[in-house]
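At your convenience, could you comment on the folded chain following this short note?
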Amino acid sequence: MGVVLRNLQKVVPLRRARLRKDVDTLRHILGIQKFDLGIVCVDNHRIQHINNIYRKKNVATDVLSFPFYEDLRPGKLPCPLDRDELNLGDIFLGVEFVMKQCKEDSLDLHGTLAVVTAHGICHLLGYRHETEEEWTEMLQKESYILNEYNRLTGRNLEPLMKRCGQDR
């Protein structure tokens, strides 16, 4: 199974091959290679529109996740009954929003996109951050994923949730 990666924005130059490689590394770490995953890169206008429709928040954001399995418990992989169900869902990356944050915090865009994608995948796998307990559980999972990612790639990425708190 694979990753469908679409870049629907023209505001930020994006190296799709690098993002695809990072997504493949994240999928390997989580053992979810057999599942399809959609990644859609969008600008502030589009992600704000989607955020307003689905979350009633009329602001741009870094990532929105739309899980195929809505009631998945954190840490449990889906058990598809059919090949058509080998899908985790779709992640919308607010690339323009992320780029602005990178400039403000002096961060690398593609590294930050890997972190934001890891966050989105956690949501597809049932993790939430509505309560302090959920936030802690999700932060632990993201930290594990990024520690493994760093070990495999020699990079030094950290969860953004440390800085963002529960507002993300």
In short: The first helix runs from residue 16 to 30. The first strand starts at residue 3 and ends at 7.
